[in-house]
Structure formats: C-alpha cells, structure tokens
Write a structure and sequence with these properties.
Layout lengths: L1 E5 L2 E3 L5 E8 L7 E7 L6 E6 L6 E3 L7 E6 L4 E6 L8 E8 L3 E3 L3 E5 L2
Parallel strand pairs: 2-11
Antiparallel strand pairs: 1-3, 3-8, 4-5, 4-9, 5-6, 7-8, 9-10, 9-11
Length: 114
C-alpha cells in the first residue's frame, strides 16, 4: 500500500499550487480521501475531505473558497488545488485514505513566502 504526495514547493503569497496523491495497493474507490497539514510546532490539522465517489467535498474554514479537493478514481489519484496561498498555509501536506483501513502518505512540503 502506498500514498505518494507530490506537487509541493515554494510559492509567493497569492500564488497557486496543485498537490497530487497517487494511491496504490488498495481499492481506491472504496475510500474517502482527506488532506491534512502540519505546520512547524503545530498539531496536524484536517484540511479537506472528498467522498469515495467524489460526490461531496468538505473544507476547513481556513481554506474554504481557496482550496479545492478532487479525485479521479480510474487514476487512483486525489488532488488539492490551492489558490490565493497565504504564508499561514506553509506546512507539510499529507493525504489520508479512510475506509476498511487507514492509510497515510509521507507528506509534501508547501512553503508560502516572498
């Protein structure tokens, strides 16, 4: 089982990034998918969630209106489109698969700085 995040990097405030999380080793379409983040010195926090069929999405108040979670089940991939990035969005971003089992990726660093 693997969840591999990619797409992180350094971006200026107001910029955009798209994170990807590629899944393998389990039936992706049976799992809800989540994005979390952890900033230095802070606890990991939930960011967004998408249902197994992509029919519903939910967001933390801090990212609502700026971030969009989506998934393509035949590609076994979930995405996080992040727009209007702020310095406080700086964190390691993790994807999580929740279903019959619980899986986490290794994380990708996002740094928002001028």
């Amino acid at each position: 089982v693997q969840l591999v995040e990619s797409g992180g990097g350094l971006v200026q405030p107001g910029g955009s990034l798209r994170l990807s999380c590629a899944a393998s080793g389990f039936t992706f379409s049976n799992y809800t998918m989540h994005w979390y983040r952890q900033a230095p010195g802070k606890e990991r926090e939930w960011v967004a969630y998408i249902t197994s069929n992509g029919g519903a999405t939910y967001y933390a108040d801090s990212v609502k209106g700026r971030f969009t979670i989506s998934r393509v089940n035949f590609k076994n991939t979930v995405y996080l489109q992040m727009n209007s990035l702020k310095p406080e969005d700086t964190a390691v971003y993790y994807c999580r698969a929740r279903g019959p089992y619980d899986y986490w990726g290794q994380g990708t660093q996002v740094t928002v700085s001028s």
